[in-house]
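Much of what follows relies on a compact textual record of a protein's fold. Here is one such record, which you should read through line by line:
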Amino acid sequence: METERPLLEPVRGSTEDNAEGVPEISTAAMNSPICNFFDGRSVLMTGATGFLGKALMMKLLKSCPGLKKIYVIVRAKKGKEPKERIRTLLEDKAFRGCSEELASKVVAMSGDISLPGLDLSPEDTQKLIGADITVAFHSAATVRFNEPLKGAIEKNVGGTQAIIELCKQFKDMKVLVYVSTAYSNCNLPKVEETVYDSAIPAEGFLQCARWMSEKQMEALAPQVMGSWPNSYTFSKFLAENLLKAECGHFSVAIFRPTIVVNAVKEPVPGWTNSFNGPTGVTLASGVGLVRTICCDEDLVVDIVPVDWVVNAAITSAWDASHKEKDISIYNYSSGSVNPITWKEYVLHCEEFGHKYPPGNALWYYSLTMTKKKWLYYLLRLLLHIWPALLVDFTCSLLGKPKRMLHIYEKVDEFADLSSFFTMNQWKFSDQNVQSMLSRVSAEDSKIFPCNIQQLNWKNYFNDYMYGIRQFLLKEDPKTIPASIIRVRRLKVLHRGVQVALFIFLIFITYTMVSSIYFIFK
């Protein structure tokens, strides 16, 4: 049994063809059209401290040795200035750290995408204009499903507008890569690689968001968003419309990944720092907190690994640069080329979740999915609410804080927000992505692997569950044997409770039938 994998385990790989691995960048980059594209160029980035942005910055630094500078726009947070936040990021052990030479290529600029002009100082703006920036990656956004509409539009649309205006001032600007989401048009069952027009110009929505109060915007939200399920997807749709209206000054690549999850290989197999999407639900299930979700298990869960998303985004910059002042859309999806259903996803997670169980598990890992709303609410009552009430009642008797019911309120709120995506199916056309992959050289397919057809899901989920334990729960691999023993005990308890409930239901049924029989006898 594999129990003592080191933190920086050598790449094992989750692809069908993994024998060759990733070549030495210093030699492979010499024959790489994509690496050559970035030679001598400076890049502008937003969202560098986010899940995808962090992986993107590290990949550019380590795989494009000829890159001149990376200018990152970062806001101060929790008392940390932008330079300090970037320095901490570059020292991350998971990325094996960065040499001083690589770290010196990153220039942190203080800014905020939610404010006009990105809240850049006049000095920093002039510094960027004079920096010979030719490529920009805009991935900063609020990804909260329940973000108030005003804030979502100000950040996701207003931030995009500010980036466009800034990039227009770069004299050698070649391509802007906007990291959107495949679900920006989730009101449609089939999403083509095109920008769908908004009934009202995105600029109009942005102006309304700037002068209306949050309360006024929320009152209008149901009418404004229409068939979009949340402010996140709707604001990303508007941002795409804004890009379409403003393009023509340089090439634009609208890059639309589906659900971004743990890494395949880089920086290490299974790496993540995101609790969003199915990863958060899987973690909560692994510790025995989430026991049921409303989900159609036969639908495809369209997930894509973060390192391959980053590789595809970098490749799209190279590809779009060949299309003079044009706009290109890339739907990056697994559903059409290497689909996996929710049932398969959960089975893989349970298999490897039992292999790498968390040390602080509250209950045995067992997740029940149902697409019947009435059954889901019944299971939620039985498996979430009643146990929470019992735990809180016990805590009150012991004089301890009552927290479990509040935790489940948050868990079930997230489940309700996510149910739109677990109960519906989309088909994402990806002709532009497939066409792009056909033009990628043999060297670049090794340096920037992103062909989802080559992904081996079973190998991937082994690293996926190990990564959740290591990078999100931050548990020592040496504790795995003890955790396995704990989970075995929880399994016995779990089965005992199931048997007890079954006997109880039989007793209740027998009692009711006997009573009815006695009445009509």
Q: What stands out?
A: Confidence is low (pLDDT under 50) at residues 1-13, 16-24. The two ends are 62 Å apart (CA to CA).
